[in-house]
Write a structure and sequence with these properties.
Length: 112
């Protein structure tokens, strides 16, 4: 699978739901050590862990993809996770990842 957890989003979710890392790991059916490796980005989310996370977040009516970092985009010799487009005033016009495009009203981003 090779996806990486968004540590910031997972920690925010756990804190707002008042769920400890220990309970989260137990509810997922993974060891606390494995969770710690996922949260330190020392390992990626495998198929079985992805399925466990997916089932878990569905209980909260949440999409697992919001807790995963977007796949990197290869542009020539550069590897990026996100492309942000701003105007002269440094206002965000659009943000592009491998999984979605978010654009400001009045602007249209086309991928060809």
């Amino acid at each position: 699978m090779g996806k990486i957890l968004s540590v910031e989003d997972i920690k925010y979710f756990l804190s707002t739901q008042n769920i400890s890392k220990r309970k989260f790991a137990k509810d997922l059916g993974i060891s606390r050590t494995h969770l710690d490796k996922l949260l330190s980005e020392k390992c990626t989310v495998g198929v079985r862990t992805y399925q466990k996370l997916d089932r878990y977040f569905k209980k909260f009516e949440l999409d697992i993809e919001m807790f995963l970092l977007p796949t990197e985009i290869v542009l020539g010799d550069k590897i990026v996770r996100c492309i942000n487009i701003t105007n002269e005033s440094n206002e965000l016009i659009a943000s592009i990842t491998s999984s979605n495009i978010i654009e400001r009203d009045g602007y249209k981003v086309e991928c060809k």
